[in-house]
Amino acid sequence: MKKDQELVIEEYQVTARDFPARVQIVKGAGFTLEYRIKTPDIGEATKAVLDSIKLKLIRETKIEMHEILDPRIALKLEARFKENALKIVNEELPGVSDSEKKMLAGLLVNEMFGLGNIEIPLNDNSLEEVVINNSVDPVWVYHKKYGWLKTNIYLPSEDKIVDYANFIGRRVGRQVTVLDPLMDAHLITGDRVNATLFPISTDGNTITIRKFARKPWTITDFISINTMNEDIAALIWTCVQYELNVLISGGTGSGKTSTLNAITPFIQPNNRVISIEDTRELSLPPYLHWIPLTTREPNPEGKGEVSMLDLMVNSLRMRPDRMLVGEIRRQREAEVLFEAMHTGHSVYSTLHADRAEQVKRRLITPPINIPESLLEALHLVVVQYRQRKIGIRRTLEVAEVVPTGETEEKAGIMLRQLYRWRPRQDDFVKEKESIRLWEEIGLLTGMTERELDEDLAEKRQILRWMVDKKINDLKDVGLVMATYYKDKNELLELVNSNKGISGLK
Fold first, then answer.
1. Which residues, other chains included, contact 53 with Cβ-Cβ below 8 Å and sequence gap of 6+?
2. Dist CA 345 CA 324 (whole Å)
3. What confidence tens digit (pLDDT) does each residue in 40-53 have?
4. How does the average pLDDT of the chain come out, rounded?
5. Which residues contact 220 (CB under 8 A, 6 or more apart)?
6. pTM score
7. 462 in helix, strand or coil?
8. Beta strand 206-210 pairing with 272-277
């Protein structure tokens, strides 16, 4: 396809701190679609004035060292910086319109307080990843609808990539150097960042930004887009309610953490919840008693590290009712995690494994390599899958963990599939009735199988009502669940009357 035959497939606007841009998805002469950003034209005279404004901004915006290093007040600092930028733009360019002044102030903040041109894709909710491979190649993005796309953004130099990496790292007390050329960090928005330096990355310095969902996924979102159905959601809800242990597995980008986040509103508000993550990704409803913990890298002298294992061991001394662990990677972490399950704590975590049976193999073989007998404490495995070709995520399998062997020496487990996804029909089929889950819940509560079936039917009814009423905000979903545990009859009365959530507020 020749350049004059380019086809614009989609076009929409993205705004980053009041600075607008048009995004075009273009089918051109290349082998991949392109992500083109068109920004307002700014004259040379205005650019010269903006350069002088930058110097004035630096002089007039007093920033204390602790403000730079404290991510909790970074947003307040940004607001102050933007306010000063708007004031100086108003003084230096009195003849331009108010909308242009806001646009220019936003541009200044993007360049001086953000990542410049990268701020546009970072504010595009259609994107999942933004990656810088070097200063020679264009920035690439991963679009939810179109997959990997080349952009028309180029970084001016390798030094600029290092500057951006260090700017990000300083916010969270981390740095990337020639001696320590790998860095994991996050932006104040929660987006995860990985940086690598040349010559570790042989073509140049890299930054990979995995965007954190501005609106956390909820269980009703999952049902609405057919990631899972009401039956699976009701089953998971029951397991969480009655404090059974759940492990969510899947490949990279399959939605493991999003699923973990989506099931947290099922926890009772009077339970103490402690989450442990390498990078803060989870976001829980305000009604929960939640203490988030994150790991810390060592300083350049190799001191001050706080590992996942450190946090897991420490959290057991914090009297948690529920523990959310970002991901199991190492043997000692898995041992502590399963020990917590065996000592009566309810644990929810994620693991890289593509199938339920693979979960078992990964846990009992190196590098994790824990005794199979420990896995008896686990109750449910939920496997998430990402179909990259058409860009969908589905719950591939739901399996219960059933202990086997009559003696401790022969103790083991088998994974019994309860639900699976059928790709051709794009639906979910029930494979078997639960054996262990219902038996376990019956022992804990005294409920009969018939009562459990009625309980599941009520949960499905509530979930359907939430989907129908488009109750998909994390706070609202949390409110529904908190009401359920406070007064189930009140909630069911609202559901049966087919009224909206306003009846709870």
1. 85, 88, 89, 92, 108
2. 11
3. 888 888 888 888 88
4. 89
5. 463, 466, 467, 470, 471, 472, 477
6. 0.80
7. helix
8. unpaired
CA distance 500 to 466: 9
Q: Which residues pair with 352 in a beta bridge?
A: 250
Q: pLDDT tens across 92-125, in order?
A: 888 788 888 888 888 888 888 889 999 999 999 9
CA 368 to chain centre: 24
Q: Tell me which residue of 147, 167, 164 sits closest to 155, measured CA to CA.
A: 164
Residue 334 vs residues 321, 382, 391: alpha-carbon distances, Å? 18, 18, 32
- The mean pLDDT value for 291-320 works out to 86
Q: Is the pLDDT of residue 3 over 60?
A: no
Higher-confidence residue: 327 or 135?
Answer: 135
Tokens read off for 220: 């009703």
- Report helix angle 98-113 to 44-60, nearest 10: 60
How far apart are the C-alpha atoms of 99 and 106, rounded to whole Å?
11
- As to burial, measured by CB atoms within 10 angstroms (0-12 exposed, 13-18 middle, 19+ buried), residue 401 is buried
The pLDDT of residue 98 is 84
pLDDT tens digit sequence for 257-303:
999 999 999 999 999 999 998 877 889 999 999 999 988 877 767 78
Tell me the C-alpha distance between 90 and 88, whole Å.
Answer: 5
Strands of 135-215, DSSP E = 140-143, 147-151, 182-186, 192-196, 206-210
DSSP character string of 18-38 = TEEEEEEEEE-SSSS-EEEEE
Domains of the chain, each with CATH number or no CATH: 3-210 (3.30.450.380), 219-504 (3.40.50.300)
Cβ atoms of 117 and 153 closer than 8 Å: yes
